[in-house]
Design brief:
By secondary structure, this protein is of the alpha/beta class. It contains nine helices and 14 strands.
């Protein structure tokens, strides 16, 4: 019989209950043996619905009593840090949702624990695994694209509970996506519009180490029932656009002019390629990256590889959030 990883779940909130846990069904190498949450109502609902044999209200007790190979943790940034620290000290690999910690200093502390333990904490920046964004990165890496010279993204949402929470849990996604697409970046300017603590918007400008430039627009001023996300990468006479996550268009220079009186054809070496998933198809897969990142995490553990992004990677994104604060503070002076 094939060995299965013994996995513990920490955090039984809405995201875990409605979506994250079910993503594990795509891998056959997992046996979820225990679940933990401080809220007993959530804990009982989760364990009863998913038939988990052991329940705990203290993750330290779960770590001590269960023989775990890995933990999947979805709570909040501070608890992600605390649970990851406990797991690494116990010699257990762990997957935490973004945001990985409250500060870059906490992330740096966990980097040292990763090195000492030989284990790893993978961070769930799901946009690195979204179908359309993975496609866009592959296209932009082709020699024909000529590198990413300009980058523009929009990542909006409905009013958040606070500006601080909005930056730490929303803006961070597109800072990380910019790094994923373009390599390391340096912020050059941040502009802010403020209505109240729940409604705020930013335009963030940056330059990549390779010389490309970009802007990220992110605000909590929209209604999330409308399209929230858009990404455009501009190369050499071509671009790739991801609109509303599930629609990708790759515009290439046409190899045949279409403004003359003669028969026309879309040609393989030029013209536009597009991908748009069918909403009429039975939804077995979300294309939001959660399934892919968890299957990847488990596959890495089963085959002795170190999954990424880990804390060594995530700390770079955390530092960009802090750079953003510095640039905003300089405007106030």
């Amino acid at each position: 019989m094939e060995k299965k990883l013994r996995v513990g779940i920490v955090g039984c909130g809405k995201h875990m209950f409605e979506f994250i846990y079910t993503c594990l069904r795509w891998t056959q190498q997992v046996q979820v043996v225990a679940v933990c949450d401080i809220d007993e109502a959530k804990l009982n609902r989760f364990s009863n619905y998913y038939n988990i044999p052991q329940t705990y209200t203290d993750y330290n007790e779960m770590i001590a009593k269960e023989s775990l190979d890995a933990i999947v943790c979805v709570i909040n940034e501070q608890m992600h840090y605390e649970v990851a620290k406990a797991a690494l000290l116990a010699g257990i690999d762990i997957f935490v949702e973004k945001t990985p910690s409250s500060t870059s200093q906490q992330a740096e502390e966990l980097i040292e624990l990763q090195k000492q333990s030989g284990k790893t904490a993978m961070v769930g920046f799901n946009r690195r695994f979204m179908t359309s964004y993975v496609m866009a990165k592959e296209i932009a890496s082709r020699p024909e694209f000529g590198g990413i010279h300009m980058y523009q993204s929009q990542f909006n949402t409905t009013p958040y509970k606070s500006e601080a929470y909005f930056k730490l849990n929303h803006v961070i996604h597109h800072l990380d996506l910019a790094r994923f697409m373009m390599g390391e970046i340096k912020l050059t300017q941040v502009q802010r519009v403020f209505i109240d603590d729940k409604r705020v918007g930013y335009t963030i400008s940056f330059r990549s180490e390779s010389g490309g430039i970009g802007t990220i627009q992110s605000g909590s001023l929209l209604d999330e029932l409308y399209p929230m996300e858009r990404l455009e990468l501009i190369g050499d006479r071509q671009n790739v656009v991801v609109d509303n996550v599930k629609n990708l268009v790759y515009n290439r220079p046409p190899s045949q002019k279409k403004d003359q009186f003669k028969p026309y054809a879309l040609l393989e070496g030029g013209d536009t390629l597009s991908w748009n998933t069918s909403h009429g198809l039975y939804p077995k897969h979300s294309y939001h990256g959660y399934e892919d990142e968890l299957v990847y995490f488990i596959d890495c553990l089963m085959n002795g590889r170190k999954p990424e992004p880990n804390y060594e990677d995530a700390v770079q994104t955390m530092r960009l959030l802090e750079d953003m604060e510095v640039l905003l503070a300089e405007q106030v002076k």
